[in-house]
Amino acid sequence: MADDFLHRFGPWALVTGASSGIGAEFARELAARGLHVVIAARRADRLEQLAGDLRRAHGAQVEVVPLDLERPDFIEPLLRACADKDVGLVVSNAGFGLKGEHHALDAARLTAMLNVNSHAPMLLAHAFAPRLIARGRGGLLLTGSIEGFIGFPWSAAYAATKAFVMTLGEALWGELRAHGVDVMVLAPGATDTDAPTLQGIDKHQLAGLMPPSEVARQALARLGGPPVFVPGWMNRVMVRFLTALPRRVGVLAAGKGMRDAIRRSRGGVGPVEGLPRSRT
Prior knowledge:
CATH topology: Rossmann fold
Distance between the termini: 31 Å
Strand order of the largest sheet: 3-2-1-4-5-6-7
Order of helices and strands: HEHEHEHEHEHEHHEHH
């Protein structure tokens, strides 16, 4: 099984948003499967620590690329880092969220979120798809969210960026499968990372909280299957419930859940206005 994965997706993988959370766990799982990894994120110190862990634990070759995917030229350092490497798997995982009333959020941060969450995976797919096609095998994994299935009031723009990722990934799944390239959108729900806390939400108030290591493991196990994968049975039930309802009812139900989670995190008081951002 490990040899087959290495043949399909190795010898190198690229992981963005690898400094923490699901991205770091992707890097760990890939190194454990015998792949070398290029890891990219803003926080160079965390990347270097992760690189040392992977080298010691698995003997993997690791290249660290500190960068900010908000920048329009972010793709250039990644292309340089991968120029001499046979990259068979691209994991576009970097992202951040803004929670609160849409009109109360900072416009510049909303634009930055759009760049990181939607613009960056689109350009990564555009830049690396020709290389994967030329290999005749490989994979592209885009991290979305269960919020991409329906509009989430109090998370409007974030949900929209993840809806973009889901539609992009589904379409690329259809385009690239004839070339032997597997594409999948990972749509996790609440995950035990720093992200909810940095968004002003107590993660322990969230139902179905999953370990990021399990999310990454399940995602890699499903790569090569359907175009969208939702890890965790509770998350799958919630998606089925929200999308089976009449659209307006589903949107209102999603919004109530989001608003209640934010209010519980604040002790049940105060309006739901702009909240801090989360970023990997």
